[in-house]
Amino acid sequence: MSRQRTQALTGWTESIAMSEETVRKLREIMVAEFSEADLRTLCAELGLSFDELGGLGVFGKTRALIETARERSMLPSLEARARALRPAAFQGVPSLADTAGSNREQRPAGATSSTSTDIARQSPATSAPLAGEHARSADKTRVPLSIRGIAVIVGVLALLMAALTFLIQPRAVGPVSEREGTAPALSTATIASSLAVEQTAPATVQSVSTESALAPPQPAVQPTPPLSATHAAAQTVVALNRQLLEFYQRRVTAEDLREYWRPPAYQVVLDFANRILLRRLGVNLAAGDPIEVDLQYVRPPELAALNSGTATVVSREYWRYTNPRTGRSLCETRDYSYILSEDAGKYAVREFSGELVSSACRP
Fold first, then answer.
1. What domain range is 333 assigned to?
2. Torsion-angle region of residue 46: left (phi > 0), alpha (psi -120 to 50) or beta?
3. When you count CB atoms within 10 A of the terminal residue's CB, does the N or C end of the chain come out lower?
4. pTM of this prediction?
5. Which of 64, 88, 106 is the last residue of a domain?
6. Is residue 296 part of a domain?
7. Is 151 within a domain?
8. Which residues touch 328 (CB under 8 Å, ≥6 apart)?
9. What would the pLDDT profile of 213-261 be if each residue is shown by its tens digit?
């Protein structure tokens, strides 16, 4: 029986891993196959607000949509709609409904039910003595409720007595014995003098009491490191934004952007340049259409967190994109959060998000 339960548990664990793999595959397919317009349609069909989702671009919106659907138990519905829209992309990928059914079928039975089954399979002559033996063993080890209640009351009374003894114990006010290894207490004249100084100048002089003189030194509190704009990660964000401006001016290529951007953040940047600007402003960068781009830092990039090999940089940035042929502009002020990875002392963005603050254009 033990071997059978082990095999069942192993199968159940593998099916759970398969379910998580299905969710990961769903996210990858949606990022590759769906546009922001498709995601907006999915949100409308599921009764969700696309504008309230966090994240930026297709990658950020897809991740936020999947997490929201998971929290509201709507993940199977989301997957079903995605499969209906892109059936070819999901060929060979198991659905969440299939993996959920596998979980229910392979869930190992509990120890109690297994034990009951084993006893039931035994002959009546064998199971009856065993049941009686278990009952007698339980009666021997069971502690009466009244005795346990008395033990709890006695314990509480002991704690109360110890606390009262500590509170009413007289405190020594005279000099402390030198054999205790502590400094002598201050004299009455010194205390009176300190009190007099405190009353005359409380803002500049503090009184000295015997308790503060005898108290053990407290460990120094380490101040929280301030945000740093000079850290290499923060300077990397400044450099990559400068490179983006050069990209829009055709001074660097899309391949050059890989210096500071790693997948999937790199794909989000290209998606914004080639799809969002085309849809919003009618600018086709791939066809060589001109565009005017302006960047202003409302709050410059600063280091917010630093872990082993990973840094988080935050900033508030104002971007203005203008089609010089039509005069139409797209303006965004966003609070950006960049997650950068360090490799050989050099940082690159692997993920980022931008919370929209304002869409108003500045003069």
1. 232-358
2. alpha
3. C
4. 0.43
5. 106
6. yes
7. no
8. 281, 282, 322
9. 455 555 555 454 456 889 999 999 999 999 999 999 999 999 999 999 9
